[in-house]
Design goal:
By secondary structure, the protein is α/β, with parallel strands linked by helices. It has 2 domains: 234 residues, Glycogen Phosphorylase B (Rossmann fold), CATH 3.40.50; 162 residues, Rossmann fold (3-Layer(aba) Sandwich). It has 16 helices and 13 strands. Helix 1 crosses helix 16, helix 5 packs across helix 6 and helix 9 packs parallel to helix 10. The radius of gyration is 22 Å and the shape is globular. The two termini are 18 Å apart.
Length: 422
């Protein structure tokens, strides 16, 4: 069996959302003749820890190399202290403003050194670097330069083309130069959406015929869908609408809340029956809570906050409707939020507010409603879903396209192609 080195900055026990792409695709690689070998930093780099997913590492990933240097761990630990003294403030300023592309570059030298050892020891036939942060791609490019092993750069999110990153003009140019230099060593590039691929090609970052779309996928075992876990329960007497993740930039729920208010005004008997659950990082300024209070929806808001992934999936399984929100500007259309595939795994109806590829997937699978950021549209969709109990029957054939087993098969075809061309 051929071996592939997967370079990822987040891996269990990290609770970062980035772990799921590697876990779900990596599980199935041996089915197609590739054994995954993981290179990741020591878990002490992780801001949040979730030990639940380690059971899948033990089951599906036999070779995991964790490599971090003492200097970078000390620097990040000191700089990120909650009670910052002058030293920690200075170090934090240093790595925010001076390290290119960001503080994760501190892992670069140690990871390259470890990667060279792994390539020789494990007889690695291909490298898969999954971005972000961008350092994983830079490490992969350096290993390709030094060894000639074929390299696939995988964009979960864009780097310099990411609309949610704010760079100064000088910093942006430095990062563009780094990114284009990195891509000179890539044999192929994958992106998680059509729009990300389009940006890479249109801006002459990489060749169109070597750039592919490989979306995230559904893997119910790794998403805890089949797990019997009842410690956390939503109110069964409520109609539970649930959103997981953060609200940021123009990705906000205010138009949905306006639509929900219109629905309740039109159907007052539902006022005490609906509960809107938010699971994840909330706006520290409490703008969402203030808005709900102002329009009279505070009793309907249930702020659950951050929970472990397994718990979040349990909340989704117990919900009646799952909310997905994209921003209102054109730039936000480039993303397919990873949470969409968590929602799809539960086979629950989805309401997507916004535009972009999620709308196409939801329509293709027949998994819910897509509406604009327009309160009357949202109200009418809620009427169809709640009052009329409109049922959405997922189309099995189309749903199967997004199973991780099939997603893995697609990415393996790219591994085989870049290896055959060497």
């Amino acid at each position: 069996m051929k071996k592939i080195l997967i370079i990822t900055y987040a891996f269990p026990p990290s609770n970062d959302v980035a772990i799921h792409r590697v876990l779900r695709i990596g599980k199935w690689l041996p089915e197609y003749g590739w054994e995954p070998v993981i290179l990741t930093p020591d878990y002490t780099f992780s801001e949040r820890i979730d030990n639940d997913n380690l059971v899948f590492v033990d089951k599906y990933f036999k070779k995991v190399y964790r490599s971090s240097g003492i200097k970078e761990k000390l620097l990040i630990t000191i700089a990120d202290k909650r009670k910052r003294n002058l030293l920690s403030k200075f170090l934090r300023w240093s790595y925010i403003y001076n390290l290119q592309p960001d503080k994760s570059i501190l892992w670069f030298n140690r990871a390259v050194s470890a990667g060279l050892e792994i390539i020789e020891k494990e007889d690695i036939r291909a490298i898969w670097s999954t971005i972000g942060p961008a350092v994983t791609g830079l490490i992969g490019a350096e290993l390709k330069r030094l060894t000639g092993v074929p390299l696939l750069i995988d964009y979960r999110d864009p780097w310099t083309l990411n609309p949610y990153r704010n760079y100064s003009k000088a910093r942006l140019q430095k990062n563009i130069d780094l990114e284009k230099k990195m891509l000179e060593y890539a044999d192929a590039v994958t992106a998680t959406s059509d729009f990300i691929k389009e940006g890479i090609v249109k801006n002459n970052y990489f060749k169109a015929d070597k750039t592919f779309v490989v979306t995230n996928g559904i893997e119910q075992e790794l998403q805890w869908v089949d797990a019997d876990y009842k410690e956390l329960l939503l109110n069964e007497n409520k109609f539970n609408i649930t959103y997981t993740g953060a609200f940021y930039g123009d990705r906000q729920p205010f138009s949905f809340l306006e639509g929900l208010k219109l629905f309740i005004d039109e159907h007052p008997d539902w006022k005490n029956k609906i509960q809107f659950n938010i699971i994840g990082n909330l706006d520290p300024s409490k703008n969402i809570l203030k808005y709900c209070r102002r329009i009279g929806l505070e009793p309907n808001l249930n702020e659950i906050g951050l929970v472990q992934y397994r718990n979040a999936m349990e909340y989704l399984k117990q919900s009646d409707l799952l909310l997905l929100v994209n921003g209102q500007n054109d730039e936000s259309k480039i993303f397919i939020p990873g949470k969409l595939f968590d929602y799809l795994a539960t086979i629950k109806p989805i309401m997507f507010v916004g535009e972009g590829q999620p709308a196409e997937i939801i329509s293709e699978i027949n998994s819910g409603e897509t509406v604009q950021h327009e309160p009357c549209e949202i109200k009418n969709a809620l009427c169809r879903l709640i009052i009329n109990e409109h049922k959405y029957q997922y189309i099995e054939l189309q749903y199967g396209k997004y199973l991780s087993k099939n997603i893995s098969k697609n990415i393996v075809a790219i591994f085989d192609q870049i290896c055959d061309s060497v």
